[in-house]
Amino acid sequence: MNLHFRAEGKGKTIVLIHGLFGSADNLGLLARELKQHYQVISIDLRNHGLSPHSDQFSYQDLAQDIIDTLDHLAIDQFDVVGHSMGGKVAMALSALVPHRISHLIIIDMAPVIYHAHRHQNVFHGLREVNCHLITKRSEAEHYLARYVEDAGVRQFLLKSLAKTETGYQWRFNVEGLIANYATIMGWHPALQPFTGKTLFIKGQLSDYIEPQYRGEIMAQFPNAKAHVVANTGHWLHAEKPATVNRIIDQFLTQ
Prior knowledge:
The chain starts with a strand and ends with a helix. It has helices at residues 28-34, 59-72, 85-96, 120-130, 137-144, 151-158, 174-179, 181-185, 214-220, 236-239, 241-252; strands spanning 5-8, 13-17, 39-43, 78-83, 101-107, 161-164, 167-170, 197-203, 224-229. The protein contains 11 helices and 9 strands. It has 254 residues and is an alpha/beta fold. It folds into 2 domains: 5-114 and 186-252, 3-Layer(aba) Sandwich (Rossmann fold); 120-179, no CATH class. The radius of gyration is 18 Å and the shape is globular. The strands form 2 sheets. Strands 1-3-2-4-5-8-9 form a 7-stranded mixed β-sheet, sandwiched between helices. It has a two-stranded antiparallel sheet with strand order 6-7. Helix 1 links the parallel strand 2 (13-17) and strand 3. This is Alpha/beta hydrolase. GO terms for molecular function: hydrolase activity. Residues 14-246 form the AB hydrolase-1 domain. Keywords: Hydrolase.
């Protein structure tokens, strides 16, 4: 799996991993600051962005894709920042190559199974767009709005709408993500614990990291620290980028 990625800056390597429906651009506000002092590798996960599509979509597959990419670039040691689903990819990565990771930073995600179906309306909207020949982005938003009320979420999704010779199409693999949704929301609690430096950054208003998950977090990441960013939700790195960048920079220098 030859992932699409973007490399910026010089110095020690930091890998940025986006979440569900995202792409390498989603952590751009973090990359903009980090690339001043580090080499930043921003990844498009399989079935997202400009990376290839595949029916296989386990967290071990996604982590191995990143390992293969870093091996191709001859990068041995690195730090990792993962948001949301990308946080779970980062956690899986820490189980596969713990000796290669210096700092592990997870943004608003826990190593647990999430039982609620959080994206049903999004999948309905994406499929609705696929039912029509889209010649303008505004047409896609019109169909998307039938199911996705939040304008901010629609704009986020539309970042992955690309113009092709046959009209606009989603860059991510809609049907592949739907087929693997249980895997995306699931987890493998039997993974080898990662004892390296680990930081969980939570959005105060988000429910992805709850107090009852502390046991699972500490079992897999016994040296984990936590930082809560006040008055932010799941997209805390976009809501308060300066604050999140400061937290990451302080942790990386420890």
